[in-house]
Design goal:
By secondary structure, the protein is mainly alpha-helical. It has 2 domains: 107 residues, no CATH class; 121 residues, no CATH class. The protein is built from 11 helices and no strands. The longest helix is centred in the middle third of the chain and has 27 residues. The protein starts with a helix and ends in a 5-residue tail after the last helix. The mean pLDDT is 85.
């Protein structure tokens, strides 16, 4: 297989994972089991057939509507699938460069584990971002899963001092939450940054935090320019900016 074929396979794999992430996002805290139960239309309740579940393609063929009741299908479905597919592709390309792999050549077993680890991190960041945008909360279940995965980095020559320093940005967000009693920052943001800090290391975690604030400020100013009546505290969750900062710091660092 050449590099283009592998890249396409990784992208399609990301699309499939993104489809599963949508199931988690829609079913979390609803009482429904994520694994059990087939997908259905939320408007008419009809069980979806296999050809209605093909990531992105089914949405396009059906023109964003249910085949039976013609109700609109949320744009979240293709957006999350495409975002996850692109992230998986970019993570794969960085992995191949980081480990100096020839085009189309698979890595050693240990290197492949690292790639799967990166894919898991990417999936969780998408999950946290979209859920926070929809519900303005970062569930502990997702944050703790990210935190558990981030500890894999400790086995990569992660000194005790480096570990403590990597938690510095998270401690800063915790102070903002504590001092403001949750008005400026949510505790979930500090938990997300703690996981991101351990994943990135002390230097890049600081870069991620700074980028998050810069991007958040730019988006906030843009939204205020469009609509001065928008209340930033209630309208804009900070988790997506943290996730974006973590991803940018990861890609533009000499990681691996």
């Amino acid at each position: 297989m050449d590099s283009i074929e592998i890249g396409l396979l990784v992208f399609f794999f990301g699309l499939a994972v993104g489809s599963f992430l949508n199931v988690i996002i829609f079913r979390h805290n609803t009482g429904e089991k994520v694994i059990a139960g087939r997908s259905r239309c939320f408007a008419c309740g009809k069980t979806l057939r296999w050809h209605e579940l093909i990531p992105v393609l089914s949405f396009c063929i059906q023109k964003g509507r249910c085949r039976d009741c013609r109700s609109k299908i949320s744009w979240q479905y293709p957006a999350v699938e495409i975002l996850t597919g692109l992230l998986f592709l970019f993570f794969y390309l960085k992995w191949r460069i980081a480990y100096s792999l020839p085009a189309g050549e698979a890595g050693a077993g240990q290197d492949l584990i690292i790639l799967l680890w990166w894919f898991s991190i990417a999936a969780l960041l998408v999950l946290l971002t979209v859920y926070d945008l929809k519900h303005k909360i970062l569930p502990d279940r997702f944050n703790y899963a990210f935190l558990a995965l981030s500890f894999f980095n400790i086995f990569n020559d992660f000194a005790a001092l480096t570990f403590l320093l990597s938690l510095g940005p998270a401690f800063f967000l915790f102070l903002l939450w504590f001092i403001s009693r949750g008005r400026w920052m949510g505790l979930g943001d500090a938990k997300l940054m703690a996981a991101g800090g351990i994943f990135l290391g002390h230097i890049q975690s600081l870069v991620a935090l700074v980028l998050s604030f810069w991007i958040g400020a730019a988006v906030g100013i843009f939204l205020l320019f469009l609509n001065p009546n928008i209340k930033l505290k209630s309208e804009i969750p900070f988790g997506p900016f943290l996730a974006l900062g973590i991803i940018l710091a990861f890609f533009f660092s000499p990681y691996g």
